Amino acid sequence: RSSSYQRCPHLRRWIVKRGQSTITTEVGASPSPSAATVPNIATNRIVGRWLLGCSGLVAGAIVLGGVTRLTESGLSMVDWHLVREMKPPQSQAEWEAEFSKYQQFPEFKIMNHDMTLPEFKFIFYMEWGHRMWGRLVGLAYILPTIYFWRKGYFTRSMKGKVLGLCGFVFFQGLLGWYMVKSGLEEKPESYDVPRVSQYRLCAHLGSALLLYCASLWTGLTMLIPAHKMAETKRLMQLKRFAKGTGGLVFLTALSGAFVAGLDAGLVYNSYPKMGDRWIPDDLLAFSPKLKNFFENPTTVQFDHRILGISSLTAITGLYLFSRRMVLPRRAKIAISLLTAMAYGQVALGISTLLLYVPTPLAAIHQSGSVALLSLAIWVLAELRKIPK
């Protein structure tokens, strides 16, 4: 057999090819064909880590966007240019020209009419940093997508997912400018302070959270092997419970956009009652009644309180339910961390309210919502089915 192996170069080449960990296929009919790698465990690990890195950048954008809102910096850049605005003003003349443009809009005329140029530079750099971070996020998705696609790292289903993620990044940028425009419009009939539309703010935050969740989920499922668990009735109940809890955490985070958009954290700075009442008198002051849930600061804060306590109750119930089951160690750790983070997040929210929304504490509370959502997604990843 040894001599026949040596006499048959075709057999030898076939055995060597079968032993390779990655398979290469000829592309095209050129004399020197290029090679494309078929997805395998190693390439999936690379793609998974890339998506986790992208989700981290999106989380950073969400946190930075929250700080920009808290410092009231979001309306300092009154133009939107994809490339031109990447270079901030350099000379004194350029800064004065930029400041002059800002002075033409309602925020300066009504709120910041006594603002100095150094003060303007601070809010400008806050917004500029947020926009540049957004461009970094776009490059972090698009450039590796092109590279991995050409290398053959994506399956057919993964190609659809990454195209969707890249498209969502582009949509998120447009939605951000659409949101900013709402705060630059003249509103003679309004006596309120100039601010972006809370509806557009909610849409902008919601799309960022969806992009974050999709990237984190896809990355985790590519890196964390699914557990081999018997599909019992109690396990199915736990999975449904975990999905519902994750949805409630997402909704609570989204309701925070209305709190931020209406500065609703600055009304009724007491807890657990709102003033002297459990249910304030002006809860349904607006007409029609439905308008209160989106435009009345009292109702918006009340709803956020209810959703926060509901999320805490659901997570506590999930923890207690899971204690009565035999689960893999990683799943137990994920549920325990989710529970601990939920109590910490509620404590942060109450502290932020009682202290009249100090910027550092409010920023930590907003970051906590992303951390809580991340842990909820990790729990779902640990409880998922083994792919067939």
What does this structure look like?
- Pathway: Porphyrin-containing compound metabolism; heme A biosynthesis; heme A from heme O: step 1/1.
- Its cofactor is heme b.
- This is Cytochrome c oxidase assembly protein COX15 homolog.
- Its main location: membrane.
- The chain crosses the membrane at residues 50-70, 132-150, 162-180, 205-226, 247-268, 304-321, 333-357, 363-381.
- With 388 residues, the chain is mostly helical.
- The protein has 2 domains: 39-185 and 193-223, no CATH class; 226-387, no CATH class.
- 68% of the residues lie in helices and 2% in strands.
- The protein has 13 helices and 2 strands.
- The chain has helices at residues 2-7, 9-18, 41-70, 92-102, 106-111, 117-151, 156-184, 198-223, 233-261, 292-295, 297-323, 329-354, 359-382, and strands at 24-27, 34-37.
- Strands 1-2 form a two-stranded antiparallel sheet.
- Strand 1 and strand 2 form a beta hairpin.
- Helix 3 packs antiparallel against helix 13 (359-382) and helix 7 (156-184) runs antiparallel to helix 8 (198-223).
- Residues 1-5 and 18-36 have low confidence and may be disordered.
Q: What structural class is derived from the secondary structure elements?
A: mainly alpha
How much helical structure, as a percent, in the residues? 55-70%
> Strands of the largest sheet, in order across it?
1-2
What is the number of helices? 13
Strand count, sense and barrel status of the largest sheet are: 2 strands, antiparallel
Radius of gyration: 26 Å
Proportion in β-strands? under 5%
